[in-house]
Amino acid sequence: GGVWIGTEGGVLLRWADGAFSVWTLADGLPSLKIRSLLEDHLHNLWIGTEDGGLAMLKGGRIKVYNKRDGLPGNTIWSLAEGADGSLWIGTDRYGLSHLKDGKFATLTTKDGLPSSGILSLCADASGGLWVGTTGAGLAYLRGGKTTRYGSREGLPGVTVSSILLDKRGTLWVGTQEGGLGRFKKGAFEACGAKQGLADNLVLALAEDHEGSLWAGTMNGLTQIVDSDFVTYTKEEGLPGNTVLCAFEDRAGNLWAGTTDGVAEIPKSGPIRSFSPRQGLPGSMVFAIHEDRAGTLWFGIEGHGIARFKDGRFESLTMREGLICNNISSFCDGSEGGLWVGTPSGLSFIQGGKITNYRLHKGSAAEGVAALAQGQDGALWVGTSTGTLHRFKDGAWTTFGPEYGFPAVPITSVDAIHVDQEGTLWMGSSAGLIRFKDGKSAVFARKNGLFSDFIHQVLEDDRGRLWMTCNRGVFVVSKAQLERVADGSSERITCRVYDTSDGMKSAECNGGGAPAGVRRRDGRLCFPTM
How far apart are CA 374 and CA 351, in angstroms? Predict the structure, then answer.
């Protein structure tokens, strides 16, 4: 819980708990000039110096390594810890040294390095090492093989002063001549002064907890938000620009329900659109689902359900027994069949038979806004009047304050996400609700949440919840939320995405289901207006 600061005045500082601790030459530092710092997995601090070699601070004591111990030179510009816990050491002109099991080994141009001046280092989880050099570009070392990267691969400069692998696995390279390079699909994309960088001479890179990249340059500090939004509109082939819901089928194709029909966005090839001209019974598609048999179901405003199989649509309406012709959501049954949520209640379709259920809050009838299946096979139902119901083993349970459900006024429960621990995360008109072990916690703007009106809740591989509202998309880690819930923290910090990040519209739609989908490759899709 501290910050280490190396200076050119012979002082090493540590800022923690509102105070500085100081180490100087008198405490054993080998040089007045500190060039690099690294804290390893054992919490030892490694200190690279100019002309003084390498120092390790452990338990308040400093141990020094220099040429007498096997280092090729005493000026250390860069440090990195390998995936195996060993230490990589970049020197000013004597190559790359490797400290493992107490012994030093050195690589130079004779071993395939493009230069023996090593300015920056970055290790990856696979055991590879990125090496930034003076005047000779970038190298990647792995398994005894060295791969070089230079201007042919789009690297914007030849002197690489900083390297960073961000949380998403994207490699960023700061150069002293051409600004930043972002490594994608085997080549670099340049980001320099022309693209808004403060200066083309980049000295340092860092990533904050929200995923923003910060570049320290000779002319100021630049924040870079790496947004990879891809937008589909009528120009790309959608039937309409107001997208109500999005769904990925088992083949990996994306379906978008709009106010003017539905579109299939395949993994490759052109977009296919379906409207009443192609047999769709209506234009406004509010819900999409694929059942276990691979049949696609579409909820059509005022026209019930359109079942799509073998290239044809079949209609299912109140005439066939549906409780309502306006469909809000779908969910598979735990033992087969399909649940259908509507403003008038639920329909359950199985084996050609339809069973209807009406939900009540006191004497008032409730409409279904969200459906989700729990890990135990229970059906969770969020309603338009802010109630949570559970259908399990043939019995209904309505959750209110006596069951730990929040007593705060909730107009509607619009989204339910069940995580791997069985915790329910619900988007509502009163904020985000966590329902865990029969107890609830509510997170709202007063806690730092970006919006109290949440249309959808999705979880990524990093334990973060992505939520949508009418002002954009925002993300927060579950760990942060848990700290607020247990009282160890008071505030939530959200990362917000909107038009400034590449979205064509920040107004996400909450009228359909799903109001956002996580695809099999981890990408997230959000319908907007």
Answer: 23
pTM for the full predicted model:
0.60
Instruction: Yes or no: say if 518 and 524 are a contact pair by the CB < 8 Å rule.
Output: yes
Angle at 112 between CA 108 and CA 115, to 5 degrees: 55
Name 227's bridge partners: none
Determine contact, residues 116/107, Cβ cutoff 8 Å: no
CB contact at 8 A, 112 and 119: no
Q: What are the two backbone dihedrals, phi and then psi, of residue 370, each rounded to the nearest 5 degrees?
A: -150, 145
Q: Which residues of the chain have pLDDT under 70?
A: 1, 210, 225-229, 362-364
Fold of 3-224: Methylamine Dehydrogenase; Chain H (2.130.10)
Q: Tell which residue, 194, 196, 147, 155, has the closest CA to residue 176.
A: 155
Q: What is the residue type of 220?
A: G
Please, are residues 135 and 159 in contact by the beta-carbon 8 Å criterion? yes
Mean pLDDT over the full length of the chain: 89
Nearest in space to 262 (alpha carbons), one of 198, 307, 215, 203: 307
Question: Could you tell me which of 352, 357, 362 has the C-alpha nearest to residue 379?
Answer: 357
294 sits in which H/E element: none
Distance of alpha carbon 474 from alpha carbon 465, whole angstroms? 8
pLDDT digits 0-9 by tens, 268-286: 788 999 999 988 999 999 9
Report d(CA 238, CA 261) in Å as an integer: 8
Instruction: Find all residues with CB under 8 Å of 93, minimum gap 6, and list them.
Output: 73, 75, 116, 117
